[in-house]
Design a protein that fits this description.
This protein is mainly α. The chain contains 27 helices and three strands. The longest helix has 28 residues, at about 205-235.
């Protein structure tokens, strides 16, 4: 109990010191940056697993406190801070200072909105399973310390998991059936992470330390399996998935993304882009090229290791293409990019895997892309695509995609901007990069690579329709799955995972195509402004150097045009 008491005491001190700052009625840009620095420090301490995942390992022996008092204190803290920031007199501030104010306000709006509307602690059992899986995964993914020290941190976290699970049971007064099923699937898939992966750290432990690790691990697994059983027994009485409604959905678009579109306009954009990419597939000499087929590949890897190695080997080819054609600058601080197997615990909501970039505080510049378990006979879209030609997805996840963009964003000197992770910019850039490589000649016409690019954009366009209609209450979950299959061209496994991800993470699925559309629009305006001095590579460098900011803000920075921002704020 002593570490928990110390953590709570520290949080109380942080809240007291923060209230002292608030009492001064912050008015200046300097006050804004002090508030932001205090907030980031407070957040990092209150969410230790987030900190570990971001490369800050000060609190690796802790899990988040989900007691009711801690949850309510955090919510009040964020709400009061947002009110103070909203009240700051910014009309006479400089352009740069006002941008920082808008960005920090959006960060706080994000926290306060989801606390108020979604209330994950009471509705989403995934919160507690993810805290446990990420609590261990964040200690494993990089060798930031000795195996022994990381194993000791893991033991400390494992010991806290049974109590965390029990707290979750108390908090879940209205669990959503869909979220509970996803949590059940994750909890029952977590064993390999806790047994196979975790135990690689145990080699330098003393016999007593190893026994303590195993004992704590087994107790944590028993607790998580029991949580899955507890949820399963209660599934019939749980509430169905409930959409947030159009008013709340528009609030996210306006105040968090600073997006100059509402839900109706967004859905129309999705329909237009979907129609375009379905048609472009049809214009291929062989339209079946848009559906990845390993049988067309000359080399089918025999096993998992060969598959991952073949995947990684294509990155150098893509980097050379970028450099030769001067499409984007690759900084010297870029680390290596690895392809690894997706832990089973993350498969229910990440059927295609996920990218893990260097964290905000990471001293290790390397990045990873986690892809599902290799099976040459798999029907999974991402596996089939990776066998036939891994470059489209590699370009999205690696260089020039997420790995490059987020590595650059981590080096932005302005702390408020460095901390911002606008998903529309992040995913929009990665999707834009896929097609940019096609248009600049990486893939031959009527090739599997070109076909794959079109299919990837097609189902990203379908994501908009699913996300908007699911969360505004116009579609059921089954309709969302069907739409991914019929309109997006996905297999049932991928379509079900995509729909589950859309339901579990509102608005995440819109980020890809909306961001790409905004970047394409910005590219055209940037070229017009530059005239004969236009160079595509310079546009990309100018775009990336500001970090992961809302693209309406980027318009204002690069073009001194705040039309999009004014539309969003109106």
């Amino acid at each position: 109990m002593k570490p928990l008491i110390l953590c709570l005491a520290s949080c109380v001190l942080m809240v007291v010191s923060f209230h002292a700052i608030q009492a001064q009625s912050p008015k200046t840009p300097g006050d804004l940056h002090r508030l932001a620095a205090e907030y980031y420090n407070w957040r990092n301490q209150n969410f230790p697993v987030f900190s570990s995942d971001a490369g800050l390992h000060t609190w690796d022996d802790r899990l988040t406190d989900y007691s009711l008092s801690a949850v309510l204190a955090r919510r009040l803290h964020a709400k009061e801070l947002l009110a103070k920031v909203q009240a700051m007199p910014t009309a006479d501030w400089s352009k740069d200072d006002r941008i920082d104010w808008l960005i920090f306000r959006a960060q706080l709006e994000n926290v306060v909105f989801f606390n108020r509307v979604i209330d994950f602690e009471q509705s989403d059992p995934q919160l507690y399973v993810n805290e446990c899986s990420n609590g261990i995964f964040s200690l494993l993914k990089k060798e930031y310390d000795t195996p022994r020290n990381r194993a000791l941190s893991a033991t400390a976290r494992l010991k806290q998991m049974p109590a965390l699970v029990e707290q979750g049971k108390q908090n879940l007064i209205r669990p959503v059936r869909l979220y509970a099923q996803l949590a059940i699937d994750s909890a029952r898939s977590i064993d390999s992470l806790f047994i196979d992966s975790l135990m690689t750290l145990a080699k330098d432990l003393s016999p007593a330390e190893r026994n303590e690790l195993v004992k704590s691990r087994d107790a944590a697994l028993t607790s998580l399996h029991g949580f899955a059983d507890w949820l399963e027994r209660r599934l019939p009485g749980m509430v169905p998935f409930k959409p947030m409604g159009e008013e709340n959905y528009n609030y996210i678009l306006k105040y968090i993304y600073l997006l100059p579109l509402d839900a109706t306009q967004l859905e129309m954009l999705g329909q237009a882009e979907l129609a375009r990419y379905r048609a472009l597939e049809s214009l291929l000499q062989d339209p079946s090229l848009a559906d990845p087929n390993p049988a067309r590949s000359k080399n089918i890897p025999p096993d998992q290791q060969a598959f991952l190695k073949a995947y990684e080997s294509r990155q150098e080819e893509m980097i050379n293409f970028l450099k030769t054609n001067k499409l984007v600058s690759v900084p010297d601080y870029m680390g290596p990019f690895y392809i690894r197997q997706l832990p089973e615990a993350f498969k229910p909501t990440s059927p295609g895997g996920f990218m893990n970039p260097p964290g905000l505080y990471d001293k290790d510049p390397s990045g990873f892309y986690f892809i599902p378990t290799y099976n040459p006979a798999s029907k999974n879209f991402y596996i089939r695509a990776a066998i036939e030609d891994p470059r489209p997805i590699l370009g999205h996840e690696g260089i020039p995609g997420h790995f490059l963009q987020l590595s650059i964003a981590n080096h932005v000197p302005n702390e408020i901007r460095r901390q911002h992770g606008d998903g529309i910019f992040v995913e929009g850039w990665a999707l834009y990069g896929e097609e940019m490589l096609m248009h600049t000649g990486l893939y031959p016409n009527n090739s599997p690579g070109q076909g794959q690019i079109l299919r990837l954009s097609r189902y990203r366009a379908a994501r908009i329709g699913v996300d908007v209609n699911l969360h505004t209450g116009k579609w059921t979950f089954d309709q969302a799955v069907h739409y991914f299959m019929e309109a997006g061209g996905l297999d049932r496994e991928a379509a079900t995972g995509e729909a589950a991800g859309a339901a579990a993470s509102p608005t995440q699925k819109i980020t890809y195509m909306v961001g790409k559309w905004q970047i394409m629009r910005l590219l055209g305006k940037y070229r017009d402004k530059q005239g004969p001095n236009f160079r595509l590579g310079q546009f990309h460098d100018d775009l990336l150097k500001n970090g992961s900011l809302p693209l309406s803000i980027v318009d204002w920075i690069l073009l001194d045009d705040r039309t999009s921002l004014d539309q969003a704020l109106r």
